[in-house]
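User: Fold this one for me? It's GNAT family N-acetyltransferase.
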Amino acid sequence: MIRPARSEDVPTILGLIRDLAEYERAAHEVRATEDDLLRSLFGPEPKVFAHVAELDGRVVGFALWFLSYSTWLGRHGVYLEDLYVSPEARGKGFGRALLAELTRIADQRGYGRVEWSVLDWNAPAIGFYESLGARPQEDWTVYRLTEDTFPSLTRD
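Assistant: Here's what I get for GNAT family N-acetyltransferase.
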């Protein structure tokens, strides 16, 4: 079962985020708290959204996403920040169902795309995404400024 996340799912979602970060060899980078997620997902004007996958009434996966925008298409899109299904629930169709739900949302709302990033060494994820028809975007490299670099850019 796939459904929109509820506030009571936040502790489980945070646990899954930590599991994902550990898998991606970056557990030390997780700073998010339950309060951060509650505020982001369920505050007065949420700008980020989540759907969860349930197995026997227990959350076993999630997709966390927000709106993007394409000036070339002149329309919004969905940017999938994280997609994660716990190891014991993999192979049961939850990842596909989560992506299908985001695709349905994008289609119903007239959005132009659903996109995400994947680590280049994550062969199982790449294989899964390509099996669904997703293709890598050639010639594009992701760049990032972080709060550690903000001061050098914002100084007068």
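One thing worth pointing out: The chain has a mean pLDDT of 94.
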